[in-house]
Write a structure and sequence with these properties.
heterodimer, A: 2 domains, 5 helices, B: alpha+beta, Enolase-like, domain 1, 3 domains, 12 helices, 27% strand
């Protein structure tokens, strides 16, 4: 995995991982955090970097499906693993069609759960994983779910509403029971 | 692309051993210049703020043999790579030592617990660490390995000072052992913090054991954030002469400092108030356990 030296004289590492279902790789120094790796080396600027010491939650990504702070991980430590960023939550980013947003993203839009939007990527990833674990949260569960993420605009009420709305939308997204076909194919 | 742009930590040489033997060889080689990286939820902020600049990081995240959690009738043994969240959710571990899930629920937030390791938080030896206090109260041990062999370190000897453990630079904490809760016993863990998931201004872990008549026979409490190392106090006699006496004993036992977040007096007051609440909860849990067992 070691590959050459950086201009600073540091050892470089070839880091390969899967990001949003696609293979990704870059050559970086060991102190490159996963958040900077995503933003600077892969150009995925959807992951936002706020406090850079694990408090604010803006940089939350899913590592093998579980939310983690990407600012508290070194890219080299997670080589070979699977990362999902906010860009990977949308079924297709190729179109501006709002129907391609995920249930959590649609709920945020409907409930006005963001204002400046800086913290939003971290909330979206955290809630996406949270609803997988608890698909029918109470309002209290919703507060617990987002307790590790800071938002300085909304006052959180609309984010809590969006968690509950996202649960409803996810239920509606479940593939309906297929109706018996009429007259054959 | 941008080699030293926006790099918060100072440079270090990264080592990614895949076995404990490799890790121990590396630690022996780099000595005091090295630091073990497990979950990194405390270490990476320290590096990002350049409060520490170790020349070598020995990253143990690839060592599968450390990713263990075993429970038997004597207690819970947690491997160095078991994440907090796994320990918190393990039903058998919670039945054996209920203080584990009770305390872990108060360690930062679930997102941090997905990555942080329980043994790593012990090695970090933060006197405001929840597990630090649980290990001290339950009389647990940490197993430390080096190329010279391995040794068990009792909790009472493990925590030397704030952020200082008895581990030598060439040693790796490979596991920690939390003894099972005694029969006819109950526990509780309470803390007060400024914000949800933040460091506790004061926290209390309590264990209570009942005698054959279901009367309180033993009351012990452990305290966090109120001294340089975890404080453990036997409050059996004080409790038997009344809750006020137990609270007074707790206030006398702790030695908090004033900082930005709270005054020493306030922390001491919390120690007294939380002691009463935690002991009552632990007594109720012990009675409930007896009813369930009956």
């Amino acid at each position: 995995m070691t590959r050459g030296e950086a201009p600073t004289g540091e050892q470089q590492h070839r880091v390969r991982l899967t990001v949003n279902g696609r293979a990704a790789a870059a050559t970086v120094v060991a102190r490159r955090t996963l958040s900077d790796f995503l933003r600077h080396d892969l150009g995925l600027t959807g992951t936002h970097v706020g406090c850079e010491h694990g408090v604010c939650g803006a940089c939350t990504v899913l590592l093998d499906g579980e939310p983690v702070r990407s600012c508290l991980l070194f890219a080299v430590s997670v080589a070979g693993r699977e990362v999902t960023t906010v860009e990977g939550l949308t079924p297709s980013t190729a179109t501006a069609d709002p129907d391609t947003l995920s249930a959590v993203q649609r709920a945020f839009r409907e409930c006005h759960a963001l204002q400046c939007g800086f913290c939003t990527p971290g909330f979206l990833t955290t809630i996406t994983a949270g609803l997988r674990e608890n698909p029918h949260p109470s309002a209290d569960d919703a507060v617990q779910m987002i307790a590790g993420n800071l938002c300085r605009c909304t006052g959180y009420q609309n984010i809590v509403a969006a968690v509950l709305r996202a649960a409803e939308l996810s239920d509606a997204d479940e593939p309906p029971v297929p109706e018996p076909a009429e007259g054959g194919a | 692309m941008g080699q030293d742009v926006g790099m918060k930590p100072a440079p270090f040489v990264w080592h990614g051993p895949e076995t404990v033997a490799e890790a121990l060889d590396l630690l022996a080689e780099v000595g005091p210049q090295g630091k073990v990286l497990a979950g990194g939820q405390s270490l990476v902020p320290v590096l990002a703020m350049r409060l520490a600049e170790p020349a070598h990081l020995v990253d143990i995240n690839r060592i599968a043999e450390l990713d263990t959690l075993t429970v038997d009738e004597t207690g819970v043994r947690i491997g160095a790579l078991a994440r907090h969240r796994r320990v918190e959710r393990d039903a058998a571990a919670g039945r054996s030592q209920p203080l584990l899930p009770q305390a872990l629920a108060m360690v930062a937030h679930p997102t941090i617990r997905n990555r942080g390791t329980s043994v790593g938080s012990l090695a970090h030896a933060d006197p405001s660490g929840e597990l630090t206090t649980v290990l001290a109260l339950t009389g647990g041990t940490v197993t430390a390995a080096s190329t010279a062999g391995s040794r068990e370190i009792a909790a009472a000897d493990f925590f030397v000072g704030p952020l200082e453990s008895a581990l030598r630079p060439d040693e790796l904490a490979t596991s920690a052992f939390f003894p099972a809760l005694a029969a006819r016993s109950g526990t509780a863990f309470l803390e007060v913090s400024r914000r949800h998931g933040d460091y506790a201004l004061c926290g209390v872990a309590a264990t209570v054991t009942l005698d054959e008549n279901d009367d309180v026979a033993v009351v012990r409490c452990g305290y966090l954030s109120v001294a340089e190392t975890p404080v453990v106090v036997d409050l059996t006699e004080a409790w038997q002469s009344g809750g006020d006496d137990a609270a007074a004993a707790a206030r006398a036992a702790v030695d908090p400092i004033t900082d930005l977040h709270a005054t020493a007096d306030y922390r001491r007051q919390l120690a007294g108030v939380l002691t009463g609440r935690a002991v009552r909860q632990a007594i109720a849990a012990a009675h409930h356990g007896q009813e369930t067992a009956a």
